[in-house]
Amino acid sequence: MAEQFVTLHCEPCDACRSEAWQHVVEGRLRWEEQSYCTAPLTAFQSCDGGWGPPPPWVRERIVAAEGTVRLAVGGPDGVPLKAVRAMYGLTLPQLREARANGLHATPVEAGLLRGTRSGPRG
What we know:
The protein is of the alpha+beta class. It has helices spanning 56-66, 81-88, 92-101, 107-114, and strands at residues 3-6, 16-25, 28-37, 44-51, 69-71, 103-105. The strands form two sheets. Strands 1-4-3-2 form a four-stranded antiparallel sheet. A hairpin with a 6-residue loop joins strand 3 and strand 4 (44-51). The longest helix has 11 residues, at 56-66. The radius of gyration is 17 Å and the shape is elongated. The protein starts with a strand and ends in an 8-residue tail after the last helix. Residues 4-8 have low confidence and may be disordered.
């Protein structure tokens, strides 16, 4: 479940900042986002975060800033099917698609998934 903290909201201006990121905490994927504004009289701050893959609107911001890494899924050189399915909650048809075409993961997701390989790492 995501944690949330929100205070006074303002109209977007040049003083507004928004950040989103992922990291690994104790072997688990975690995402965070923070928005804030320091303009006088309209200052606000909002924070959100949770475990696992981020919501689509947060992931879009992470991908825009950091790009993606294409990972092979399954087989001797790919990340394990079980790990991919567990991280993203994929259905079997989605998992077959990832197996056939690879998976576009954020750099942090890719690092975590590569750590689940039983074979050589690359």
